[in-house]
């Protein structure tokens, strides 16, 4: 990228039931884009894409009406709720080859949109991937902080390279976007994939605000799902862990077997140990069920991947 060329920017915003705050988001991002166009930071054809992830409220009609007023507002409507990662993917697919670079940002204005200027400056210096990193987790609930901490610790333990405090607020050059789209996995965890594509990468720190309106759309089950997808699509450590447990349980049972046999053969002392019989049954039963669950999790993933089903279904678009 030449420092003097003016890039065509696309901003992708996944939205799920965001009608409470989306007008404010549209207006703030429109102002931002106008300002950048005027000061020639971005090309005049730069645009916004709102991806409606199957909202049940007024989100889509609000996107539609603002797209009539402003032709740089575009929309993608998914036919049903697919989840944040897939909504983002739909947006990435929509903008690929239509822009020089794209920025993804949440619809709730929790991420400081003014940092996009820094993203662009970094892009102009030659960085093809610019990742937004949260300064702190001040506004998060104790529960969210705790689960995030736990998640990073587990990922670290599993040997998954993941960038701490990077959500999906990032800039991708068209090239980087194209490369990410080549990963055709159904179990999508973009934050992990972004570290796999390489490219010259830069980091920009941003403040994380309270949600402008509405409630978090990441329910506990969605958060858990994202964490499990993140782990199982990037790491086979849990499977190896089972092998280790299995190995130690096996050694233990051999030792126990020898011990019990030798007592039975060489001593006439009665073994009263109810516990020593029942405990291993519980223990081994528990280990087996846990192991089956983990193996099942991976088999489930393989099952899903082999079907190669479309990862989202787009109902309509506003071009
Ligand atoms: N989102 C989505 N589909 C979903 C859940 C969330 O498109 O199934 C969007 C949501 O509208 C927002 C972004 O993903 O723009 C992040 O979600 P949210 O702010 O609710 O998550 P949190 O910030 O609480 O982690
Ligand atoms: Mg949010």
From TrEMBL:
A GO molecular function held by the record: glycosyltransferase activity
Protein topology in the membrane: Multi-pass membrane protein
Sequence ranges assigned to domain Glycosyltransferase 2-like in this UniProt record: 11-176
Pfam families in alphabetical order: Glycos_transf_2
Keywords for the protein's UniProt record, in alphabetical order: Glycosyltransferase, Membrane, Transferase, Transmembrane, Transmembrane helix
Subcellular location per the Swiss-Prot or TrEMBL entry: Membrane
Keyword Metal-binding in annotation: no
Protein name: Glycosyltransferase family 2 protein
Organism: Celerinatantimonas yamalensis
